[in-house]
Amino acid sequence: SVTDYMIICTGSSNRHMRHLAETTIQALQDSGQQILSTEGLNSDEWMIVDCGDAVLHVMSGEAREFYHLEGLWDINEQPVEE
Asked: Which protein family is named in the record (predicted)?
């Protein structure tokens, strides 16, 4: 398996996406968790934070609709209520 957990979220703007990714990175670092890699932190489409057991995908609405990772990976969706 690629990862145990895949977290997919949609940012409403580039600024929102960056905030989600950077806040996650900071929280992981503060708790002593290892970050294996990050990708696309300057992208306005898709940002990835790879922690090994979990991978965070922060996507624009358009990218999320286009790539539809939930269908590609046959993910058991567990939406979080706002």
From this structure: Belongs to the Iojap/RsfS family.
Residue 43's CB is within 10 A of a number of other CB atoms, namely 17
For the chain, domain boundaries: 5-72
Residues in the chain: 82
Per-residue tokens: 5: 């957990």
**Percent of the chain, pLDDT > 70?**
88
> Which CATH number describes the domain made up of 5-72?
3.30.460.10
Question: Do the strands 54-60 and 37-39 form a parallel or antiparallel pair, or are they unpaired?
Answer: unpaired
Q: What is the pLDDT of residue 2?
A: 79
